Amino acid sequence: MFKIKRICIFCPYSGQGNISGIQVRLRMLAYYLNSLGYDVHVIGPYENIEGATTHDFSLDVPLWHRLWRGIAVSRIIRRLRPSVVILEGPTILAGLRGVKVFQMIHDSKFATAHRRRGGMLLWLYYFLMCRVYSHTITVSEAEKDRIATNLQLSKDRIIVSYNGIGENWLRPPANFDKEFDLIYVSNFAKHKGHIRFLRAIVGLGYRVALVGGDLGTLDQVQTFAESYDLDLQFFHGLSEAELITLYDRSKVFVFPSELEGFGIPFLEARARDLPVVASDIEVFHELAADLGATIVDFADASAVRAGISAALKDGPQPIDTSHFLWRNIVADLSDRICSRNCNPPRAS
Q: 328 by DSSP, 3-state: which?
């Protein structure tokens, strides 16, 4: 086994103040890796990461500035002298000998029609660096397949480490009155599918909770809701306890997103016994095979209506989600990054 004492996690983006799956995973990795005895250091624009020493560093700058700032992080990492580095953001490391470097890719949006500005540059970066660094980590088998195809990368260089949930998600659901028929937890971005979901339920009178921060489409969603007199309530900045309570006050979770690497709210909803109606993408088929869900094409309004109607009629659907606890996920990842077949490259 490769002996690891210190692990560095490089996560240089703040998420514009919005909670994301990346941030949740970062905090859980730090906490549970520390509980396993590792000295964990987080490099990024964060404070108070439980279980980790933090080092302030940000790439929330224009695209071309990120290149030279990214190179500067090598100095921080060399000073810390870790055994393992997990890159949660693109950067080019230099001068590291005998160190395992794992490139994390939550989703390969950069290689799809949903890519943002600079997507082709990101594709080139990942194409090159996924061959230089020890291994790539991603969050589902579906995403592993997409990365292997888009980056022309051998699958044996890709490790799958699912996202998870904390212990609080497994406590018995509270017996609240159901204030909302439907709930969708997702930041407001174009590929998240809010409008096509709302278009499908126009005229049905459902009470809907939408939870998330604005990544560019919140105004559009609010305007659409007002135009069609939809019964929507918007929530942002909820604590974990408040989010759990909101799930427990809802009947059905919908997930109309057009692209996900994993989709933590799918798992959260099932942990709270909510039936899930999710879009027809590969990762949701993967999760549905384990957790159960109704898969529909959200571009087909009649199919969406039928799926939601059936889920509301069926009611709560309890299932054991304990195998998705973060402590289990992180312990498995620890075993993987210490395994013999993930040795760092030899120093030249």
A: helix
- The pLDDT value recorded for residue 348 is 32
Alpha helices in the chain (DSSP H): 21-35, 63-80, 119-132, 141-150, 194-200, 218-227, 240-248, 264-271, 282-291, 301-314, 326-338
What are the residue ranges spanned by the domains of the chain?
6-164+326-342, 167-320
User: How would CATH label the architecture of 167-320?
Assistant: 3-Layer(aba) Sandwich (3.40)
pLDDT at 118: 61
Architecture of domain 6-164+326-342: 3-Layer(aba) Sandwich (3.40)
Number of Cβ within a 10 Å radius of residue 216: 12
What confidence score (pLDDT) does residue 73 get? 86
Identical fold for domains 6-164+326-342 and 167-320, yes or no, is: yes
Q: Which two tokens stand for residue 285?
A: 């088929």
Q: Which residue's structure tokens are 């909670």?
A: 19
Exposure string over 275-300, b if 16+ CB within 10 A, otherwise e: bbbbbebebbebbbeebebbbbebee
Give the residue from 84, 88, 112 showing the smallest Cα distance to 98.
Answer: 84
The dihedrals phi and psi of 136, each to the nearest 5 degrees, come to -105, 140
**DSSP three-state, residue 229:** coil
* Integer Rg of the chain from CA: 21
The amino acid present at 198, given as its one-letter code, is L
What whole-number distance in Å separates Cα of residue 196 and Cα of residue 187?
Answer: 15
144 vs 130: CA distance, rounded Å = 13
Q: Pick from 113, 82, 112: which is nearest to 98 by CA?
A: 82
Spatial separation of the C-alpha atoms in residues 136 and 323, rounded to whole Å: 23
For residue 231, give the H/E element and its range: strand 231-235
Any bridge partners for residue 6, and if so which? 39
Triad 87, 93, 97: Cα angle to 5°: 105
Per run of 10 residues, the mean pLDDT along the chain (length 348 residues) is: 80 70 90 95 92 90 69 88 91 84 90 71 89 93 96 95 96 89 96 97 98 95 97 95 97 97 97 98 98 97 98 95 97 85 44
Rounded to whole angstroms, how far apart are CA atoms 176 and 189? 30
